[in-house]
Transporter
Amino acid sequence: MLNLHINNIGISGKEFNKILPIFSYSVATFFLMDFAFFINDIVNTLHFTYIESFILLGIPFIGRMVTPFVYSYVGKIGVPRLALLAITSMAIISFIMGYETTFIELFASRFIIGIFFGLATSAAIEVSSITGDRKIIGLTMGGWAIGWLMGAIFFMILGSWELVSIAGIVFAPALLFSRKHNVISPMLKKFHFDFSIKVFLVFLLGFTPAYVLEVVPSYLGPSSFTESIIAYSIAVFAYLLLPALIIRFSLKKTLFSSLIIVAISGIIFFATTNIVFAVLFTAFGLGVNSLLPIISRNMDIDANKIGPSMNFSAVAGFIFPVVLTIGNEALNSAIAVFVAAIFLLLFYSIEFGKHGSGSKSIKKLFSIH
């Protein structure tokens, strides 16, 4: 990631269309995660095994790990233009996928989509940071929930994975809107390996609920559409609510209470398939994601290491949907959510026990707007 900030570069936040980062993150997530609703259809129409289908679901997260190696080079075309170019590319690949029938073809297409997803979302986060608008930043991260919501609605309306994939071509003209927003970052530099094991663990543990959610549509079956539409709609607001609660209460209280809700609701949901607990688990499980950048920025970690470490943690997005379906899917999912929540709580307690609560820097972070 480029680590731009409106206060240290000569770019005005007004130069950017503030809808662009939200649009880019949301549509990129749609192309990444619409496949979660395809699993049963893929198994029935292409006669793939469930393991093969979940490999196709998760392989883009391996492609996403390529992002840190190429971002600094392709970003020279302009950060907003890069986001829209990635969306156009994903739309074309999605269209082609609608006519593919072999595992190798779909594997290659999904891997490439993962690369463009990493580019689009990294650029979207960068642009949202430049605007300096806390709501825009929150809604940009909320694009993960919006993208899931789009996937559920598209599949509910069109009814087949082929039609949803082909319909993705409607986003192909995105690149045509890039001229007005083409700003080349003066902060671009040659790639060098920036990595922090601490940030890696924060995002690995914090994103576990989101990765577990990859298996929920196939787990719930037809009822997943109702759950997804309700839960992901609420999750969009959770992305705005949880960071705001930090100011009123504290990062520790907000994080601890959220993770407790995630762990309890996740366990009950996977034990009972109750939609109410599914909604709670989804909304707070995704909402916690909005706290992870704040936690990372309040550790004694070089800011340049946050983006690459986050992208490398995406390997779990490939591992989870494959491993969780081996054996008892519900039990495996509940254990994964509980263990991740406990370890993130322990990690936070140990890390901020050494460095303090970070409350001053957090208030400073949110006092800009």
In short: The radius of gyration is 19 Å. The mean pLDDT is 86.
